[in-house]
Amino acid sequence: MPPKSRNVNNLATTQTRPSPPATSPQTSGATTPPRSALAIAPSSEKPADFSSTATADFKAELLAALRTEMVGIFKTELEMAMTNNFSQIKSELQSVKSELNANIAAIRSEVDVLKMTVNDMESPLSSCTDDVDSLKSKVDKLSAQLVTLENKCEDLEARSRRNNIRIIGLSEEHGTVDAATVSILLKNARDLGKEPVVDRAHRSLQPKPKPGERPRPIIARLHYYADCVDILRRARAQRWIKVNDSSISIFPDLTARTAKARAAFNNIRRQLRDIPNIKFGLLYPARLRITRGNVTREFTSPDEAAAFVKTL
């Protein structure tokens, strides 16, 4: 913007103002400067200072005008750019909003379907839960009853085998096995005073072995329990007996469950045989008793017995 006109007029007026009349040098003296020189000096410095001030004001006003114009141009271009960008962003946001609304609507419809399904299943599931709880209590009772019945059956089977003995090692070529043959065999093998009364005798129901294989055991039922106890006592004192060409041994006829439980202690019993000053025995049905000095321990678990043997 150009400077104001009043400053220019003032400058012109100042420059054309007449100076005061000069004084004669004769009257003032040789050492005194002329009065015209003293009067003109200040007036010549004042226009120079005023001109520099006017130039500075002009520059300032010009810079302000340029700044205002540049700000306006920048503002206009920025507004145009922002308007274009905002329009594009707005359209993109609108499309995203439409897509989100569609997705939300689809999700809400699916959630509504799931709610209906859950509501339909809630009542049957509740009844099923009650049924499961009832069945669980019944299963627990039946499991307890099953264990009781298994123990009773095991006891009944063991009692039915009380008078039975099992003869191991008699060759298959010995001939027919019957009650009379076993009665004579027991009398001769155990030096009994008389032949024990044998109700039944037969070989086990395993397939007949091939020549050279281990013979099948003989199961015999004695009529009197006292004879059975006496024969087993003699068999513990003398494990193997030579009969003809066979070495036989006699054991009690145990149930499969009891035999398996007792067999679990076989390895431990072999270890105990190598330890001095140890007495041990396998009690019915499957209890290992170990005595060392005045200390006696009984074990029904093979693992606990093995851990104890390691400490000996």
UniProtKB/TrEMBL annotation:
Species for this entry: Larimichthys crocea (Large yellow croaker)
Chain segments annotated as coiled-coil in the UniProt record: 90-166
Keywords: Coiled coil
Domain of life: Eukaryota
Polar residues bias (residue ranges): 1-17, 24-34
Protein name: LINE-1 type transposase domain-containing protein 1
Region Disordered, residue ranges: 1-52
PANTHER family: L1 TRANSPOSABLE ELEMENT-RELATED
